[in-house]
Amino acid sequence: MSSLFPALTDGPPDRAALRFGDRSLTYGELAAAAGALAGRLGGTERVAVWAAPEPETAVAVVAALEAGVAAVPLNPKAGEKELRHILADSAPALVLAPPEAELPDALRDVERIDVDVRARGPLPGGGAGEDDPALVVYTSGTTGPPKGAVLPRRALAATLDALAQAWRWTGDDVLVHALPLFHVHGLVLGVLGPLRRGGSVRHLGRFSAEGVARELNGGATMLFGVPTMYHRLAEALPTDPELVRALASARLLVSGSAALPLHDHERIAAATGRRVIERYGMTETLMNTSVRADGEARPGTVGVPLPGVELRLVEEDGSAITVWDGQTVGEIQVRGPNLFTGYLNRPDATAAAFTADGWFRTGDMAVRDPDGSVRIVGRKATDLIKSGGYKIGAGEIENALLEHPGVREAAVTGEPDADLGERIVAWVVPADPQAPPAAEELADHVARRLAPHKRPRAVRYRDSLPRNDLGKIMKRALTA
């Protein structure tokens, strides 16, 4: 298979590739540093990468990919127990890290190579096949110890090329973001995506509205973020004309990893005239759907399947749902070149994740609108509520609650109920903590917008909702 990054050898060597704060690399410098490091990786099966928000992380991953070696990104904020599990499971021969990084005791017995971004060496020739492992990315481990999803080279190429088509992404684009680099959003889309296009990426290190405004007003064309980031931008817009100008000038604003609340969608659109588009993916599948750059950015929809991706909704018995009415809830299953090849050392989990005919069971529940757009309503394990004989997605109730002016944040869960089977519980962060909307008012608000059987039976008020690094609400922490 040819290089995943043709611009390393075919493009202008002085073209900007990466910038992290005041540190930057051109394509020529990136190719030379990655080439020098790749020459030291030959013969190894897997290497760990200490995925700090630094140029060394990008050099390390590119070097591994160019050498045909699988990279295992490590979260620098991971706890000792999680790190030890990942290291025992993936058994990396080396750990690649920035020279100044202080590594925890869990990595003491793994040989370390300090990444030198000023080193010089030739890129190795090809040899890796499209089905060879490129990355082993560990899932969040919400249902047990994290599992290592083995992503082949073809999955990276297929997803990034499909997004290029859907988003009209070219080498002229300059991406700005502040996403962590141990996950597919920040690493695959946010770093490898620009490099595959021959464009450039500016990583903020730490997210700030000031940083976003500075980079977008300084030539960046695209912004990637998670809902927490867009919420902070929406909060800052009323008093920050430079930020308004920056977002209004961006070619593409993309949110992912969790649903962007309607209130933030509307505040950003009202202030800037620009709509944030959403997309849908997973560690195991990379990207499945997206609103297209030339499509309608409707809050609540993650768009249509990307080129090459097959997507269907199924009933609990596995039968396909063929009605696109925006109401019928089913589990999303996908098939295509964007999929992982399996969980490392877990043939049992791999087999359970796929149907006999090769569809991956995402565990995400959704409806499809008549135009084919997908609207996620929640996770099967935590967000599908069976109440009074109905199947109800928590996501649609959350969206309805967020349309109420008195609600800043909302989450919906189910809990056992002797009469209904499960009852709907709303967890609400009020816009004004001193005057929260009444529970009955919120229940009626949902019933008017959706249906009476979808009204919350209990409302619990919180100062905040627990979220992970990617902005997803941790519902198990709520219900615990």
Mean pLDDT: 92
Multimerization status: single chain
Helical fraction equals 25-40%
Q: What is the strand tally?
A: 26
Largest sheet: 9 strands, mixed
CATH architecture of the domain at 7-190: 3-Layer(aba) Sandwich
Poorly predicted residue ranges: none
N-to-C span: 48 Å
Protein traits:
26 strands, Acyl-CoA synthetase, AMP-bd_C_sf, nine-stranded mixed β-sheet, five-stranded antiparallel β-sheet, 14 helices, AMP-binding_CS, alpha/beta, GMP Synthetase, Chain A, domain 3, single chain, medium-chain fatty acid-CoA ligase activity, 480 residues, Rossmann fold, ANL_N_sf
Q: Your description of this structure?
A:
With about 475 residues, this protein is of the alpha/beta class. Among the domains are: about 5-190, Rossmann fold (3-Layer(aba) Sandwich), CATH 3.40.50.12780; about 385-480, GMP Synthetase, Chain A, domain 3 (2-Layer Sandwich). About 30% of the residues lie in helices and about 25% in strands. It has 14 helices and 26 strands. The strands form 6 sheets. It has a 9-stranded mixed beta sheet with strand order 2-1-10-9-11-12-13-14-15, with helices on both faces. The longest helix is centred in the middle third of the chain and has 15 residues, at about 155-165. The termini are far apart. The model has no long low-confidence stretch (mean pLDDT about 90).
